[in-house]
């Protein structure tokens, strides 16, 4: 099947889902959206939908070319199964490794695209890492670092839950896949603490789950060391280890998320740090290439949008554009690292990442 994309259904109208639908609407797609309890007015059709009801979901997908899940990760596999049965292209933002593995298995018989992990990390960071790695004849290391943080942090934790608390706790507690000294393995999260300095600002980074997507599979046997870490303000890792492990909050993930959001609610002024570096040999010489950016809120459709929202939304929308234009295949599983950076940045939505400013800032 070589099914093009014109009409799309966006599931979940939270901060990111709302913006995904709006960006696709502005890009010229025929957009409809669904949420369990849609509230705000939208410039496209919206319906109330319980995605756990497969019959109702299949009915909502009728006449659609693609579905984009902006839901909590535990809904995604069910949505992907219904999409495959209905012959509808599937895209999501999941960071959950097990969910992605199941969707990849599903893609082997699906007549359409199955493209999970289309956000910031996993997602854009893998596109950047692969772009840097392609410059080398032989690879020594690929190190990918991303942080979504308050621009003006307060308190010892130095954090604000602008992203899903469920997703953050998941990343802090699930094991992390890496390649270390040529061996593909799993390591604990909140470990391998390191110092980073980006444009003069000292930060820290540590292992978290899911950020690499499928890169360990892709680069197995091709690189000596590959890992992903989350960037935070100094001291964050020690406090989260205390909260999750010494206080045993790891045994109650849902309540851990509620406590953290109550203590550190979302902020409007946020920032996204990206630090990707690759080392290896070019023409026999050991070299290092880097991609370091600091992104800030931008104006979209007359409103100032949080950085974590637009970086995530723009990424998935750019991938949808690339499938529609034929740059990416119209069937099978799409790995983020298989997406060309230049082609991504040339899309209507990917261009948001290409903005220039002092120290790499947008906005």
Your description of this structure?
The chain is α/β, with parallel strands linked by helices and 363 residues long. It folds into 2 domains: 163 residues, NAD(P)-binding Rossmann-like Domain (Rossmann fold, 3-Layer(aba) Sandwich), CATH 3.40.50.720; 172 residues, Dihydrodipicolinate Reductase, domain 2 (2-Layer Sandwich). Helices cover 31% and strands 28% of the residues. It contains 11 helices and 17 strands. A 7-stranded parallel beta sheet has the order 3-2-1-4-5-6-17, with helices on both faces. Helix 4 links the parallel strand 5 and strand 6. The longest helix has 19 residues. The C terminus is likely disordered.
CATH topology of the largest domain: Dihydrodipicolinate Reductase, domain 2
- Rounded to an integer, what's the Rg over CA atoms? 20 Å
Highest-level CATH class of the largest domain: Alpha Beta
Name the helix and strand elements from N-terminus to C-terminus, one letter apiece.
EHEEHEHEHEHEHEEEEHEHHEEEEHEH
Average pLDDT across residues? 94
State the separation between the terminal residues, measured CA to CA: 41 Å
From the spread of the alpha carbons, the general shape counts as: globular
Number of helices: 11
Query: By helix and strand content, what is the structural category?
Result: alpha/beta
Tell me the major beta sheet: 7 strands, parallel
């Amino acid at each position: 099947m070589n099914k093009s994309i014109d009409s799309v259904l966006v599931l979940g109208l939270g901060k990111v889902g709302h913006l995904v639908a709006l960006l696709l609407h502005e890009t010229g797609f025929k957009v409809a959206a669904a949420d369990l309890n849609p509230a705000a007015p939208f410039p496209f059709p919206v319906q109330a939908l319980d995605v756990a009801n497969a019959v109702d979901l299949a009915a909502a997908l009728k006449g659609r070319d693609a579905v984009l899940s902006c839901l909590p990760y535990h809904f995604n596999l069910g949505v992907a199964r219904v999409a495959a049965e209905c012959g509808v292209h599937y895209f999501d933002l999941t960071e959950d490794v097990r969910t992605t593995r199941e969707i990849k298995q599903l893609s082997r018989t699906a007549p359409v695209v199955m493209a999970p992990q289309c956000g910031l990390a996993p997602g854009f960071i893998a596109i950047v890492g692969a772009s840097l790695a392609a410059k080398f004849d032989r690879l020594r290391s690929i190190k990918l670092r991303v942080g979504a943080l308050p621009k003006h942090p307060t308190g010892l934790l130095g954090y604000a839950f602008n992203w899903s608390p469920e997703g953050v706790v998941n990343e802090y507690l699930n094991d992390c896949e890496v390649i270390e000294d040529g061996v593909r393995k799993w390591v604990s999260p909140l470990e391998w603490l390191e110092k980073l300095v980006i444009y003069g600002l000292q930060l820290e980074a540590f292992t978290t789950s899911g950020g690499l997507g499928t890169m360990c599979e892709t680069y197995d046997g091709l690189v000596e060391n590959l890992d992903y870490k989350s960037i935070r303000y100094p001291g964050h890792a020690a406090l989260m280890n205390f909260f999750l492990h010494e206080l045993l909050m790891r045994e109650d993930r849902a309540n851990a998320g509620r406590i953290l959001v109550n203590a550190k609610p979302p902020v409007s002024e946020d920032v996204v740090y990206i630090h990707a570096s690759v080392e290896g040999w070019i023409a026999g010489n050991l070299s290092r290439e880097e991609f370091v950016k600091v992104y800030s809120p931008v104006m979209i459709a007359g409103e100032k949008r949080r950085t974590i929202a637009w970086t995530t939304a723009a990424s998935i929308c750019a991938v949808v554009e690339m499938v529609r234009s034929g740059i990416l295949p119209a069937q099978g599983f799409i790995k983020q690292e298989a997406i060309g950076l230049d082609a991504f940045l040339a899309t209507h939505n990917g261009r948001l990442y290409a903005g220039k400013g002092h120290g790499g800032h947008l906005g």
